[in-house]
């Protein structure tokens, strides 16, 4: 079956049938429904290769993450892929392994194969991302750059809630284990946690940069202990789990001797023992929203969409890794 067969069955011109299937907002609702019904009845499937040659569009999207092994990313990837598929797009996923050189190479490579790219927690400098975004529609997740649309998770609010939670339990000396250099999330946490600590009248030692991994948490353990903190906030759940492991090796019990909070609310944190108190991040909604913003730009062609920004709420989930401080310590 061809588009001509669909047009004949629906009683419309070939160009109208084509618009109904590829740019439905340009066709009256009744006409669109008639064309879609004819296409379904005839079993018509568009030839995407031919369409790409005609329209210059591949109907493919790129999604680049900094570490696909981090349990934070899979829910976002799955949500983005499923949401794009419903809209008739496929998603190519790529992993930079926290390497800015790889990140830039992947963007340049995908630019030849996709219509737009979602960059999740990119590490490249702002000017590099802005330059690359000049040739290809971008949507950023957890990064703000003027002129590019973004989906932000309100990690600042989460950091404030984490500090307030620990201060409310009676902790007066806290530590924040930051993530990698160039991380927008780490910068937001540092600023918000610092202000919250000052407001609560507690001391906050900021440590880092650190690798955003379990090993990064283990490596930061000795420095955390040197601060004398009784409560610590990790950059993410993996870092927090690494801290718990490292503290155990030093004979420090969580939460009896030291309370630990993570960020992300991943499966790993829920399965850990003690179960991890954490800031829940809206990863699946972020994936869907990023696809929506990207497709708005692609399908409307309006430059105003390039500056769209959405902030998604976060929340503190209290489990077993936090408790009042041991008054016998120190």
From TrEMBL:
Q: Does DNA-binding appear among the keywords?
A: yes
Single Gene Ontology MF annotation? DNA binding
Per its UniProt record, what SUPFAM superfamilies does this chain match?
Answer: lambda repressor-like DNA-binding domains, Periplasmic binding protein-like I
Q: Where is the HTH lacI-type domain?
A: 1-55
Q: Which UniProt keywords apply?
A: DNA-binding, Transcription, Transcription regulation
Keyword DNA-binding on this protein?
A: yes
What this protein is called in its record is: LacI family DNA-binding transcriptional regulator
């Amino acid at each position: 079956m061809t588009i001509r067969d669909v047009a004949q069955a629906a009683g419309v011109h070939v160009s109208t049938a084509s618009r109904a299937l590829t740019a439905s907002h340009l066709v009256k609702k009744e006409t669109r429904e008639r064309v879609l019904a004819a296409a379904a009845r005839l079993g018509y499937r568009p030839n995407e290769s031919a369409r790409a040659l005609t329209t210059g569009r591949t109907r493919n999207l790129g999604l680049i993450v900094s570490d696909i092994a981090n349990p934070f990313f899979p829910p976002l990837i799955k949500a983005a892929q499923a949401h794009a598929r419903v809209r008739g797009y496929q998603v190519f996923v790529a992993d930079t392994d926290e390497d800015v050189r790889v990140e830039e190479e992947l963007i340049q490579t995908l630019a030849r194969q996709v219509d737009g790219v979602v960059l999740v927690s990119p590490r490249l400098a702002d000017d590099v991302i802005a330059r690359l975004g000049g040739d290809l529609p971008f949507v950023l997740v957890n990064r703000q750059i003027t002129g590019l649309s973004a989906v932000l998770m309100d990690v600042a609010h989460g950091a404030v809630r984490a500090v307030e939670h620990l201060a409310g339990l009676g902790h007066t000396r806290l530590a924040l284990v930051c993530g990698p250099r160039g991380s927008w999330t780490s910068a937001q946490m540092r600023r918000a946690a610092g202000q919250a600590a000052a407001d609560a009248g507690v001391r906050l030692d900021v440590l880092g940069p650190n690798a955003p991994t379990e090993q990064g948490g283990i490596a930061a353990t000795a420095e955390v202990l040197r601060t004398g903190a009784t409560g610590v906030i990790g950059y993410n759940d993996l870092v927090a789990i690494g801290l718990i492991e490292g503290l155990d090796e030093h004979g420090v019990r969580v939460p009896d001797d030291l309370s630990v909070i993570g960020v992300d609310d991943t499966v790993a944190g829920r399965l850990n023992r003690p179960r991890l108190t954490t800031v829940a991040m809206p990863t699946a909604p972020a994936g869907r929203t990023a696809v929506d913003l990207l497709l708005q730009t692609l399908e409307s062609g309006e430059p105003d969409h390039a500056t769209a920004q959405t902030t998604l709420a976060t929340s503190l989930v209290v489990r077993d890794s936090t408790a009042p401080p041991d008054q016998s310590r120190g």
